[in-house]
Amino acid sequence: MSVLFLLLSLPLLLSPALSFPFGNTSYFIDCGGSTNTTDPFNTTWLSDRYFTGGATSVVSEPLHFLYPQEKNLRFFPLSSGKKNCYILPLPNGRYYFRTFTVYDNYDGKSNSPSFDASVEGTLVFSWRSPWPETLDRDGAYSDLFAFVKDGEADVCFYSIATDPPVIGSLEIRQIDPLSYDSSTIGDKFILVNYGRLSCGSNQWGPGFSNDTDDFGRTWQSDLEFRTPNTTKIINSISTRETITGTVQPPNYFPMKLYQTAVTGNGILEYYVSVDAKMDYLLWFHFAEIDSSVKQKAGRVFDVLVNEKNVERVDIFAEVGSFAAYSWSYTVHNLSSPVLTVKFVPVVGAPIVSGIEFYALVPNDLSTMPEQVVAMRALKESLRVPDRMGWNGDPCAPTSWDAWEGVTCHPNKDESALVISHIDLGSQGLKGNLSSNSLGGTLPSGLGQQSLVQLDLSNNQFVGPIPESLASATHLQLV
């Protein structure tokens, strides 16, 4: 398992107390909730009843969960189609996405579902039955960073076999577009979180504590990621002193991250289970919060990633004491399903405040924007039934089936997907709307140069043939 809609004109949830140069647009959606609610952290959660289809339910043990957005559920039975989406209008930019997913036998079938989830047309999370028992009962938060380039965020779910996808909550927050080395990495990757560790502390951040993080990030305890030998020698330390150099653009790392740390007389080692054959971005966080270290070379240690020595660290030499020091390293084409990080002493004992692990998932190809607009217009005009799953991008992700009756392929320069065939005649849909007919008028803009076959037979359409179809020079069949 990898860890990590209907367009409605609703006001965005803004945070008026905060002002960032990159914007502060955000959504907090209680999936399956019937009314808007406010949690103990003063966050308002929107009911999703106007955002998507499917059906609603609640977990089987509501008292086991703290907040409504963890108890309420939205699920998508096969009658809603294999693909269902939330499509949310947003300014173009970079965003933090977080979902809460839980099963907790809400349907009484004792069968946790298998399904995929995508963001902006790229597969990011896969859930396969049976889920681990703790995940099944307690649920899990998954998060990532992604760019939005078309004025809307698409978060979609795809049923495997006949299992209904399920979701508890969805959060989207705008962040600095230059964060996490995007000027070097570019905007063609999604950063999927495999572990965001705050060393020497409990889990904290928005939704878990009153501690702030301007990006909405939550930070896990490092405890379960330590090796057994590390657990034997490790010590946690903390300070209330101000740490300089925190909450700075473009990453806005919070001060609390650097006010706790772990140290120990020996090698400190961490391991994270990952998916092989991918690239990973690692971020390391340090601060010299031990006042006994008063000069350069007072504490020196090496950082090894999968046994490769990638950096020698002297925090005091870099920034002095009680100051934040962070840097990143990219692992290319990882051959192992495990990422290991070691902090090896050279002078004194290593000290570590935090580590982040992100998979660099390449953006999948998406359908050409003008074809997306035309296909959505076709869906509305023809009243295509829900069971056909005409939601989100017609062709993406490429690992999923395209919209039923639609065939796609990459364009000549493989920069986008184009629609080559539309076959709705094979659906045998006739009659009126109550019997799932396809009727109405054909929208303008439907024909594109990539379209070579269009079959709308055995349906009931009215009105003229659009000029765009008449001018489609490669169209073979209407």
Automatic annotation (TrEMBL):
Instruction: Describe its membrane topology.
Output: Single-pass membrane protein
UniProt keyword Metal-binding present: no
Its signal peptide is: 1-19
Q: Which GO terms describe its cellular component?
A: membrane
Start and end of every Malectin-like domain? 29-359
Any idea which UniProt keywords this protein has? Membrane, Signal, Transmembrane, Transmembrane helix
- Tell me if Magnesium is a UniProt keyword of this record: no
Q: Where in the cell is it found?
A: Membrane
Q: What is its main location?
A: membrane
Output the InterPro entries linked to this UniProt entry. Leu-rich_rpt (IPR001611), LRR_dom_sf (IPR032675), Malectin-like_Carb-bd_dom (IPR024788)
State the protein's name: Malectin-like domain-containing protein
Per the UniProt entry, what species is this protein from, by scientific name? Salix viminalis
